[in-house]
Amino acid sequence: MTPRPILDVSGLCVRLANGTPVVEGVDLSLEPGRILGLVGESGSGKTTVALALLGYAKPGVRIAAGTVRVGDEQLVDRSERDLRRLRGVLVSYVPQDPGSALNPSARVGEQLADVLRTHSLPAGQDQITAALGRVQLPATREFIRRYPHQLSGGQQQRVAIATALVCGPSLVVMDEPTTGLDVVTQAGVLKEVQRLRRELGVAVVYVSHNLAVVQEVSDDVAVMYAGRIVETGPTAALLARPRHPYTRGLVASIPDFLERRQLRGISGVGVRIGAWPRGCAFAPRCEQKVPHCEENVPDLEAVPAGSLVRCTEWQRTPPVTSLPIQARLRQDAATPLLGIESLRAVHRSRAGDVVAVRDVSFSVAVGETVGLVGESGSGKTTIGRCIAGLHEPTAGSIKLNGGALAAQASKRPRAQRRQIQIVFQNPQDSLNPRRKILDEISRPARILRGLGRRAAEADAVNLLGQVQLPSSLAHRYPAELSGGERQRVAIARALAAGPSLLICDEITSALDVSVQATVLEVLRTLQAELGLSMLFISHDLAVVASMATRVLVLESGVVREQGDLERVLAAPQDQYTRRLITAAPRLTSDPSGLVPETAEASGPEHG
Amino acid sequence: MTAQATVAHGARGHLSFARTWSGGIGLVLTVSVLFIAIFGPFLAPHPPAALLGAPFQAPDSAFPLGTDILGRDVLSRVLCGGRTVVGYATIATAIAYVIGGSLGLIAGYTRSLVDPVVMRVMDVMLAFPPFLFLLVLTTGLGTGPYVLIIGVASIHVPGIVRIVRAATLEVKGRGFVEAAVARGERRSAVLRREIVPNITGTLVADAAPRLTISILLVASLNYLGLGLHPPAADWALMLSENRPGLTIQPWSVAVPGLLIVALTIGTNLLADAVARSRGTSIDRELIAR
Amino acid sequence: MEPGHDSDPPPRTRHPIARFVVWRVAVGIALLAGISVLVFIGTAALPGDAAAQILGRNAGSGALAILNRELGLNKPGPVRYWDWLTGLLHGSFGHSLVSGDPVSSLIGFRVVNTLILAGAAGLVLIPLAMVLGVIAGRRPGSAVDNVVASTSLAMIAAPEFIIGTLLIFFFAVKLGLLPAVSILAFGTNPLGDPAVLVLPLATLVIVGSAYIIRMVRAGVVEAMRSDYVQMARLNGIPERRVVVRYGLRNALAPTVQVIALTLQWLIGGLFVVETVFAYPGIGYELVESVIARDIPVVQAVAMLIAAFYIAINILADVAVVLLVPKLRTAA
Q: Which ipTM value was assigned to this complex?
């Protein structure tokens, strides 16, 4: 007899104050000691569901219908006082950003003691020590007296987890707990979650946008899109053979650093709250849609392997194919386009100088993509900025085609400035909000190639097409574009100068994974067409692996390892590299889940 | 967009400043008083300095608001008395923006030696109590409109420099500005095309409470007799001149007083509504000052 | 160092607070010095002949020359500045150009009067405004909040001299309850005749409290909207505790800054309010001296007030550092 589920959500509906639905008709169920992954991109409603599991809704939002049962208690339609009694003791929450979720004026010990005392539990030294020990934090007097700002990101997150566990809840809701942590710390936290489930028998709802992480940690998964669950079932089976077109699109867009394959993003733009289409919310972007998909919202149907899918056409969903990456352009290794020799750079501040880049040397050949991988603080961004002429190195040389590059961009001759272009991380900042897209894209052509206004604008429209954006976007302002669209415009702007080297600095780190896939594929296509060299900077090993042929692994400003991508990933020499590779989450630990296709069968696709 | 962002976005969209009730009241008050101040002199029945009747006569058909301490028509003086308050405050604030804005832009963008030198000087000026500064200035330079304008402008300059510098620094770090720098564009082009258009929003939000403060300062100084001299027709001056007649003929004090209050409250409400439409609040602007 | 950076941030320096206080005081003294230069230039180094002022426009040039020499006005600027500054530091504030009396005797009792008025105003308005600010901030958007917020928004903008005149009109003229002008017998102080304090006090309280109310309200609203308040609620902590230990506790620092700003504003407001009521404090004295161009008095009072202003700044900065753990533990 299966144990009674510890969590039972039925028909949960959450709406804005004006009635606009945010979450609609969500059913979830979780047995004790099991981990459920709740997956979705921004706007899917997953955080809203996570909060509703504690009977909480943010200001301006309310739980309009449905029931949430945790243990023996109903959490909807209870008084705030009752809910407070239950929160922390029956069900608790681990927030996404622990830095801002801990009381800045309270010491570590006090944060824990506060929760204990609220629920009338003993809050003495023993309890605090035990709580900290449970998440492998030192229980020294010194540590207990620290304030949140005196903890590292990983420590803060562990304190948050300790606080969530301290009263012994039956269910813990973790809301993207590893976002913002570097990959090695993230791996540590994930191990922690699994250990806690094993030792304490807690049930966990793990919310994330990262399918690979969810796959590593959860037993079952529920995928959300536009406020509804579109597919749910056992994790391994569901991710090996997704039935809903959206899930399939997500899986196909996730880069994997060992099985390098072409990525396919999901066309179209995510659905915004208040703008849900009639019928199936995914229909506008779906390749398998039929007319009735846009009329009615499908119900959840059972599917082999124990999953439920919200799609009437699920039978037609093809498996995720693994198209190997196109053969790279032959590189002419003899003529390095870019040569970096013993580069050294510092960040100056009032607190003193911090060495960001120490003695880094490498080269980029014509047509080659070199990846720079490292966590924040590794110096990878600084290297990119030095090459672009935005940061002055303190020592070393940068040579373009054998000729020296001046440290500042303004001092470089026009021909050199043309050849190196850079695209930045943050899509909110990458474009001038006061200028139309056409204006923004045509500018480099006018400044660096001396084109007149008409010629530059025609060229700009052309470029929009090359980054697969409709030319109607040319007369819009950046505020009207989505993040992925803005990044593609930034790429088009960079290309308008006709560069030979494109520096991509974490250009997809702030984008949803399906959007990221589109941008990366566009970039890969362009590179093949134009024979571009690229310096691809990212903290995400899988993303770098899908783009680069050679890679440099950076740590604290030093190159730990460099070489051919295949070799570094298969046989890493350096300990740090090995740690990175082990810690990076992978979507499929079971290679048989993907159906590989041979190169001939795939045929020449995007040119 | 997340649920929270949608709520915030929606709320902000509906608060476009003319539509909140307090912003609406502010707009009405400000516009009405400005109208009287600007067009009043054309509507005045008598010259403001003319001695036409007995002092402190009660309102009647000849003098709808009665006469003042010297027997001049209160209505005419009221209609003519707004220009000085509004005019000097506006001119002083505008001058402050020109000077302070340029200094702030240069300090924020060039980060050369200019930056720390300018900022230290601003720190000293900011440490000087504003009203005290005006009093000291009038001691040395004498009273009169020019001193008034210079003094009020000087009070605003440090605050403006700080705000413009901070806004410039913030915009400077954004991707599109760095892209322009990487293209090797000239400093003047970057300032003109990329930076200035993106700080105007901050400036507008900052200007509104500043204008209120300018009006308060000018009015207070005029009241103390340290700005304009009699026989000038000025609302604040009228308040101090006609105080002896408060019991007999309150209109000569009440009307100019009410007009000043209406103006300052109106501009303040407007300033708050503008700030709220940008997602911030006037309180934060006041602290930044 | 461990990859993953899951270890401690770097250690802190010793005695950070003491060093900060010393630094702040040093900066304050430097600022005061800068201000003294500005004051001196503003009053004595600009055109406007002090000797001609005293002797009148028709004085002969010989008499002018003698007086100039006596007043030391024929010495070069920097020398005069130095003489004046050293004099100040020794407590000798010079003599009034109008009455000839030593400045210290003129302003001594006035400083006391002003302190009484300002002190009383602070004691009344700070607690009152803080309470109102917290009440409004706890329930943003409610009826109470709308009333409080709008009223204070309007009151901030109201000029003190108009409020003062209004109060005089109603309470002194119409109702005859309180004196319209604060006339005190020379040598007595307001504590002996508190009726003269009431209206000036009321004026200061009305306008000044509006300021604090707005700021405290904003601070409370921001603290209550923060992530850590939401987290506390999600941990089941009862609302009362959330408000006090999570909300208000983190709104303390901005509140201290606001109080400091208000005290500084009070200084500015005092000039006008004392003049409206002819209250015998240094604010009124300064205004009269400015009108009479009694330079030594202006200089002395200006420096006194500036010193006070800067002292408040220093106290506020130190208080904020003590209250905010992040600043307190930083180097």
A: 0.81
